[in-house]
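Figure 2 data, in text form.
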Amino acid sequence: MFRFSRFVAALVLVSAIAPFTAAAVSLSPFPQGFGVSDSNSIGGSWVENDGGSGGTERRAAGSGNDSASPAGGAFALADGDGGWFCHSVNAVGYQLLQMSYYWRGDNDAEGSDQGLVQYKTSGTCGGAGTWNTLQTHDLSIDSSWTTQSVFSLPGAIDNSTFLVRFFSDSGNSNEDFRIDEVSITGTALDVTPPSVIQVSASAPVD
């Protein structure tokens, strides 16, 4: 009969799975800045609609309300009185979606004038369908650019395609909604966690 001085086993097998969290990645074509120069249209693959009369556009940094955002360069402007710009988002294969951006209002706006950030899951940017509001901003807050901290998008739009829109819900064409550096991120659905780690050790035997 064998005697074991310190162990009662010849082989110890330890299995463990290390904690694992998949990293968030930017969904193409985000993050989206808006270049450095003026243009009568926002450009890229953005769809836009003019509001009252000024026109939704890309505007180079200037002075006053048009000073540069923290990202610098030009920014997108949704013309007051109903102007908007919109982009499709392909989040198929991704979950835990998050969004952030910089925004600024207008010194002509009143407290009832709002900048809305919205999404919808069907239709086109300019077509029928219900827009759901993600964030509401008071356009009379215009003394400086505001950083919209990262926030989570509804889980219902994980692993799907949808539209996102920036809309100037104001009563006058010069009460504009300014946006820059739009970021949308997600975490891949099909990330495989690390393999099981196995550690074996032989025990001393007397």
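Caption note: The first strand starts at residue 11 and ends at 16.
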